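Notebook B, p. 112. Complex prediction, attempt 2.
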Amino acid sequence: MTLTTSRDNTRDDPRDNDIAESLAAAVTEAFENSTPIAIRGGDTKAFLGESGSAEQSLDITGHRGVVSYEPGELVITARAGTPLADIERTLADSGQALAFEPPYFGDAATLGGTIATNLAGPARPFTGAARDFVLGARIINGRGEILRFGGEVMKNVAGYDLSRLMAGAFGTLGVLLDVSLKVLPRPRAQVTQRFEQDQTAAIQNFCQLGRKPWPITASYWEDGTTYLRLAGASSSVSAAQKSLGGEMLSDDVAFWRDVREQQRPLFTDAKSLWRLSVAPATPVLDIAGTTAMDWGGALRWLAGNDDEQGIRQRISQHGGHATVYRGQASSRLHPLSHSMMAVHTRLKNALDPAGILNPGRMYADF
Amino acid sequence: MNQAASLFDPAEHAERASPPDKPTIIAALQAQLPAEMILTEAEDLRPFECDGLSAYRQVPMIAVLPATIEQVQATMRVCHAMDVPVVARGAGTGLSGGALPLDNGVLLSLAKFNRVLDIDTQNRRATVQPGVRNLAISEAVDHLDLYYAPDPSSQIACSIGGNVAENSGGVHCLKYGLTTHNILQLEIVTVDGERLTLGGASLDSPGYDLLALMTGSEGLLGVIVEVVVKLLPKPELAKVAMVAFDDVRAAGDAVAAIINAGCVPAGLEMLDSPAIIATEEFVHAGYPLDAAAILLCEVDGPAAEVEEDIERVREIVAGCGATDVRISRDATERALFWAGRKAAFPAMGRISPDYYCMDGTIPRKALADVLIGIGELSKKYGQRVANVFHAGDGNLHPLILYDANNPGELENTEAFGGAICELCLEHGGTITGEHGVGVEKIDQMCVQFPAAELTQFHAVKAAFDPRTLLNPGKAVPTLHRCAEFGAMHVHNGQVPFPELERL
């Protein structure tokens, strides 16, 4: 499997560098000494999950640069320390994009952190999550071995899907070195329509819209207003705009960026902020606080409530899970059942037998 | 080669303590399950001796056909306690021998799990048992104008549990993804009989993405007993362009040009001349018999967008030297254009006593080179080959024609197939795009993955199944096996896995 054979049409940047060997040496040393290490990229997502127990850090930002990108293959391979902005700019130059619309939460955001946290923006229910676009990865496991899984092709079922498993693992199963992602063309046209409706009506609306092939790529609700983003060919976008009605939003690019980056007032003003992940048709949750909905109802943001037990209990009844973004909680990620925790610790042990990679970053148990 | 026993490492089996004898195992199963669910006689076991890769056959020691999840759990507990290996099986349509039984093992058939349990229209998902046929899901929600997207060629027969185990694809993957992109939740039974829920009702789940790990794990990590699939609204319109070329390279270039133009076709298929001729004689889809290759490019979505995009496709392929372009005028003509492609495999069955369906994926840019390379290999091995590609995904299905009654021809075919796998790897591809490794590609895994990666796979396996009771000998080769295989395939004088002692 070669990830590096493609024609190099990327920018020349003196900061581009492959430091995989020195990173692997550092992990090997940590393994031999059983020294826990905290993997650090741009440090923009430290607020997610737990702070972890490692005192020594492994800076991956020196491992940067696009390794290969050919628009006709719909694949980009880049080093984990590459700034996300660089990747998006490279793709935009060829009319392509990361279709999962990754949030940055800071200019320094890197590809590695983006995949390690598996975050996705408003397009998530319509195009997929970060994990859906992972085609392959080169990683360092907890023994300091450099391993390559998956590849640069669209379909690959040789071996367990360990590269996809890295998405959302917060670096606890391996240090990401290079990631190959499927990319997609940017839509040729885009428009956003807004509608006044209460939350119950919005949930019903989202469900009905989801059952028809509308060219919708984002659906959000806050404070009595639903926002629908239509995207695709200009002909179908304007046809849908006419059929659906509503009022056109000016500067919708900025609006969706603010939703993605949590720059709407609901987020910026909140002292406590919870992310509630539920089935989209879940009715209005009977939980105190201010709510916004993204992902066609499948993501509920809750501000101004710090009753961890109450929130978790309520959300579990609906088959969902709750993550704290801001505020206090005994477990920032949703707790796992006893049997699932047992599977997690065994899997962690399979990839990181000494428990040195970001220990405690997800859960205290590993 | 036909002897399944030769597939397994002696070393692997030596480590296993000798399990109780067959009557003891049968008695233990009978204590937990109704007697009619346990098959033990040769004539009852014969139907399970192979899956879609019929060159490999092995009658299992015992077959168990449970009807409830509790019975699956009970079966697993008995087998776990007695150290009996278990091979799970759905519809048995797999093409890589993933469901090949073991002579010392239990074949666990999920055939009785054939019900659609729930259709949740509001959340656009369906809860189905693993034995439900792929196409039956779409049929069950057809009246709601919804469907389940992944559509492997065998969708009329293959079951969703097997689709998950293999991470099956199909014709529409480029736009709609593989099985892993279209499922929300799995219920599995672990090797020791525990029931676990992976994924959930929401779009993500706390903890590791075990749903991703389980998908495509070929029955080595757990038994899938329930699946929640995503349902999508049917597209408003779909049109297909049937494009002919007198040169394979031009067809390959057209695939890249379509993608480069910002189009993501719902399906983009390619047939070479032998495949065109065989299918045309069989179903009369109107394919031009003198073409070197044809592309079928399907565009779906909102009507206005489809009309716009199909015209763009027409312009692009014209610029790439297409000799003929026909665009489906209605649903009937669209179905006709597809009929040839869908009949490609049975069409081969008409012109050859046997055929061997290969599966590999390469970068799209390598399509023409690999196709030409396969042609050269065809001459070298002296066997005919027809090519059917999921060109949009770079996923190849060369069909090698052979006659199993001719001594040595199967062996020659398998060597030809192995050479195609290695050709894919040389072009930056993979040895299997959607059919799985099973027993078929187990030796090519040694070529694709170095020892460290294989060792990591085994460690992951051990996290779920430390005694390797679930589908042993499939999907991931032992290092000893690779050392033996490598001894036959020495590249540039370098012996793979030099650190291992030769057996």
